[in-house]
Amino acid sequence: MKKVYVNEDWCLACHLCEYYCAAANSGAPNMIKAFAGGKKPIPRIKVEEGSGISFAVQCRHCDEPLCVKGCITGALSVKDGVISCDESRCVGCYTCVMSCPYGCIVISEDSKVIQKCDLCVKNNNGDPACVKGCPNKAIVLEER
Amino acid sequence: MALNYYQPLFEVIRDKERCIKCQACARQCANLVHSYDEELDVMVSDPTECVDCQRCVSICPTRALKITDNPNTFRRNSNWSMQIMTEVYKQADSGGVLLSAMGNPKEYPVYWDKILLNASQVTNPPIDPLREPMETKVFLGKKPRNVKFNKDGTVNTDISPTLELSTPIMFSAMSYGSISKNAHESLARAATELGIYYNTGEGGLHRDFYKYGPNTIVQVASGRFGVFKDYLETGAAVEIKMGQGAKPGIGGHLPGAKILEDISKTRMIPMGADAISPAPHHDIYSIEDLRQLVYSLKEATCYKKPIIVKIAAVHNVAAIASGIARSGADIIAIDGYRGGTGAAPTRIRDNVGIPIELALASVDQRLRDEGIRNEVSVVVAGSVRSSADVVKAIALGADAVYIGTAALLALGCHLCRSCQTGKCNWGIATQRPDLVKRLNPEIGYKRLVNLVHAWDHEIKEMMGGMGINSIEALRGNRLMLRGIGLTEKELEVLGIQHAGQ
Amino acid sequence: MTKYVIIGNSAAAIGAVQGIREYDKEGGITIITDEPHHTYSRPLISYWLEGKVADDKMYYRGEDFYKENNVDVLFSRRAEKIEKNSVVLDGGDRIAFDKLLVATGSKPFIPPMKGLDKVKNSFTFMTWDSAKAIKKKVKKNTKVLIIGAGLIGLKAAEALHHLNADITVVDLADRILPSILDVRAGEIMQKHIESKGTKIILNTSVEEFSPNSAKLTNGDTVDFDILITAVGVRPNTELISEAGGKVERGIITDDTQLTTLKNIYAAGDCTVSHDCSTDTDRILALLPNAFMQGEVAGKNMAGAEAHYQNAIPMNAIGFYGLHIITAGSYDGEEYVEEDAENERYKKLVFKDGLLKGYILMGDVKRAGIYTSMIKERIPLDNVDTDIMKDSPQMLMFGRARRLEKLGGIAVKE
Q: pTM to 2 decimals?
């Protein structure tokens, strides 16, 4: 299956992936509206940077997903290799935050539920927004 | 400074309704024009250092930015323009020579735009390139004057070494140092995929790129940087650089600050040492001297590689070209006054040299007149901007063209003409690692391939229209050209008739 | 066709069903549960009591789960004993098995307390039914006494707090949540809980109960309408011990979850796990642990080979809106950052060149990166410890691990 991979050699630390992700998953029709009025929707991808290195981190959609196995409610599940969260079943216990070896489970703005990358399968975005929004192909969707 | 004699050239316009304060502009501007004030939660800008490279505009996810000319004006004066006044102020500040980059931006005539192409109607039908074969392949080098036979009666195919190009376009010489390693890799990979050539410039060849040797032209310039056995043997051809269109009569100077480890190794000079290319080759003061170097290089490469001599287009270019053709060189490259550069004194760039169109026409005519046109191929450079310029160049007598600026545009360059600062926001004319990585060769090479493919399609379309199915039949075919808005003298130099004739 | 029998219907049992079905789509699976409910999530009972989770969200798997996985479930039946490849149920029915999983979990431990038998409204807090029983009795200002300031007791307290009950928690220990927090983190959490109006009395136990009050060892008397005892749990190991299997603090298994009895596996809170952070054997009563043990057991029961390794104690839990994530052991050299005013606390514990444990309170973002360091025993020499101390991030690892984990580029070891 195609997965998102990042290449730190090409990451510019522009953080645009975070903004494209947040907007795509905000439910708003475009980026301006997603951030209108000082709103700060939370991205499911995070750019880490330091000492000249930068790279984006988002869900690896592991074959043996510790987040799914540990989920106390069954909110996290795997379908066709994509791990997604049914936010209506999440109680915000953060067991998945504790389990994810990449730190890719994000806590919602109101701290009530978790959010995570689902490769944009739920938001009708087509290819993941981070991949489409990366100006330098540092994030790619590939079969490997 | 308490008194600012001159003003920023540009103004940053930010549409606050569209800006989402993502700070991408701030993170991307090497000139630190944009910044985010966390306390006030606003994006702010200071246009003082803005060079209008359009990086921020291009990367802004909500198209909230525009860079425009600074609307502030000095009192209008047709003689003392704001630009000229500003330059005076700058020199009064610094006492230094003004430096600029890329090609001459002045409003001199562009002859390409005053030449029109022919098309066939009725008597000589056009050819549809989608239905019929169309040849744009060219060979550069000496061509035999006539067919020779061996003793057994077979044709003698033993000819001088040539370069084979799938289409009559090559990438101009741009040194590693003046442009980044990623830019070089993009050019090298594109040339390889396209079946054309790129040119190392005078900066030597990085070890990582030896694998692209079959599509590489290696340059030998007055500084002789990076020239050694492996280098010469790796290239498909060797180019002796006598001059450059952007700065005829001037050498080069890459400041020591840019001579980092990789560049120092590639150029074979100490780290941090200025790389100074002298104005002349100190061993060349005549055509005879040039001939010595041509043959030294042929000897060094076992007569297997064509030798190119590159000169700037200057007043007596035809006579010089004639001399080069007689020096044993296989290819003459002529660089017009609009050719680009990573850094040149502004006054030289803007005032020295002649248009490539005129230089080409007179060189081709002179070589024909002297009966030595077959001794050399002619490659022209210096602002070939489109496939139409290529077709016009071929019809004026060129065998092929070099494109430099157009190639850089494909890589993202927006002609801000600030290469000399080393802070290229597009990762092209810089060695700063954080900026260099902005040019991913994976993207860059594909854009170059796209560009040349597109031009090749268009060249075939125009040739077909003229009823020509081989680029060989277009070369020097000035009957296919007509001038418009040109004087008798200009038409005479170009060797073409006026439209309507 | 293999006949699989599973005793228990919670995380370990469900894990086993999924593990079995990964390799065996045909064999019959029978689940025996002494509860009447479709599989539900035990940790959710406090959320349910609070009213945050509705009935239909209590279920651990969708309503078609048994059907989709071709599982027969015997609800409200007790497994009495294991005899010769059969499970004997209450009433004497025998269910034959080829492979058996014992996932019986644990039960509340109720210490002997004087006068406890006189208390009418006395509850424990382990099952949905126990939560339902409590809910019936609780109204606004109902006085609740909770014995035990551990995870279960305080989770019950939080839920009842949302129902506006008047709560007092009593514990013999000198601090709250001693199983997961250190002294300082316990103090911050205690202050937080007390600030919400819940009373906590430590170093104290009940001397004697009357029907609606408790006389404490400190001399005070606490009146209550209902009593919840949450001092601890005991694993349900009797089925195995009576069948002759090895039991210590819990059921002993190997890393395939096989007990010392042939064809009988065990998983979940009733078993002893190997804690790799301390290299000791202990009960790790955690839902993720139970599920993964069950899954490993299921795979092995179906004939595949799987091993359960790298288990550590870890907890992600919040009380009254203050979140904590903890993992591993706290024995070693400490690095502590504290901002008590903002209820933030961070402790990292190092030993033998490894990260051994951590406590994050308040800001728990990306804690799993620390967890992975403990579980995978990544040497501190291989990470940038300054970055690691600052916050959990992938940047602390070397380029090779990042390339492998994020770039999908396999790097030779």
A: 0.92
